[in-house]
Specification:
The chain is α/β, with parallel strands linked by helices. The chain has a single domain, classed as NAD(P)-binding Rossmann-like Domain (Rossmann fold, 3-Layer(aba) Sandwich). The chain is built from eleven helices and seven strands. Bound molecules: nicotinamide-adenine-dinucleotide. Nicotinamide-adenine-dinucleotide binds next to helix 1, strand 5 and helix 9.
């Protein structure tokens, strides 16, 4: 038997918005393997996420695969990944009460809070994406929305790694970073606009660049999972996610939709010693859809 045992490891997980997020399932799977979990959530969803972690009515969604243990998080840290440090924050956001109550809600502030909890981080999950014009085609996308989508959905991986690399450096077995991408960053998915296709494309080459840099410097592996379509909250915002799921089901070698658990299992593999020589890769968890020509 080859067990996957992450006991003693700490995982920082971004991108939990609710109990349907990929990141929620990834958290449960990493905890089931023994890792301690810290959440970094957008300031506007911290309260919502805390209630998903506490409410009786959400107990079932918290259950780990053993059917008994519940997801338990060390802390939910507010972090808007648009900002590296407080000096980057515009006046409107700085004075917004939903943000101001948290003090430093930037990537820097998140790293400082994590340092109070643990001297090291072994795993970082980047599961964040946003475009205010996701429903616009590329041709109709404004410059402002395009740049914002890249900043939040792609550059944030670079910003987070810079902040957390010292805590992830030279961990026994090596630190591991996994981000979430989509085929729309490589092929034309006509309605995947608003700068998101460009952001995913950027995220994928950044994964390779960062794998090279942080592998050499710190022994950190950086990979991405390219997930098939899945009806999360963000994906429902695209508009026709159910059509996309049905299309993928019809065309894929495995003719069915993917599940969030399958994305979580592949993430666990990438974070485990089984993937100790795997870095800079895009792993498709899409029932094989990406190999099809028609
Ligand atoms: N659902 C799909 O079909 C699909 C397919 C492939 C890849 N992905 C990717 O998976 C990842 C997770 O998406 P999901 O489908 O679980 O949806 P989700 O809505 O549950 O997760 C997206 C998260 O991004 C967070 N976020 C947005 N802007 C932020 C900011 N400025 N700072 C901090 N957090 C911010 C949101 O709060 C949310 O928790 C994304 O990168 C997404 O592009 C999704």
């Amino acid at each position: 038997m080859i067990p996957i045992d992450l006991t003693g490891q700490v995982a920082l997980i971004t991108g939990v918005g609710d109990n349907e997020s990929f990141a929620w399932f990834i958290a449960k799977t990493l905890q089931a393997a023994g890792a301690k979990i810290i959440f970094s959530c957008h300031p506007r969803v911290v309260g919502i996420v805390e209630s998903f972690l506490e409410r009786d009515m959400d107990r079932e969604a918290r259950l780990l695969p053993d059917g008994k243990t519940e997801l338990k998080v060390e802390k939910v840290i507010p972090c808007d990944v648009s900002f590296d440090a407080m000096e980057d924050v515009d006046e409107k956001t700085r004075t917004d009460r939903r943000y101001a109550k948290y003090g430093d809600f930037t990537i820097h502030g998140c790293a400082e809070q994590v340092k109070q909890l643990t001297p090291h981080v072994d795993i970082m999950i980047h599961s964040v994406a946003f475009s205010r014009e996701i429903k616009n085609s590329q041709a109709q996308t404004s410059r402002k929305a395009y740049l914002e989508a890249i900043s939040i959905s792609a550059y944030s991986l670079t910003g987070m790694l810079r902040a957390f690399a010292p805590m992830m450096a030279h961990r026994p077995g090596g630190g591991s970073v996994v981000s979430l991408t989509y085929l729309g960053g490589e092929r034309v998915v006509p309605h995947y606009g608003g700068g998101m296709s460009t952001a995913k494309s950027a995220l994928q080459i950044d994964t390779k660049q960062l794998a090279f840099h942080y592998g050499r410097e710190f022994g950190i592996r950086v990979n991405a999972i390219s997930a098939g379509p899945y009806a999360s909250r963000a994906a429902k915002g695209i508009g026709d996610i159910f059509q996309m799921i049905e299309h993928a089901r019809e065309k894929s070698p495995l003719p069915r939709p993917i599940t969030a658990e399958e994305v979580a299992h592949a993430t666990l593999f990438l974070c485990s010693p089984l993937a100790s020589a795997v870095t800079g890769q895009i792993l498709y968890v899409d029932c094989g859809y990406n190999i099809m020509g028609v």
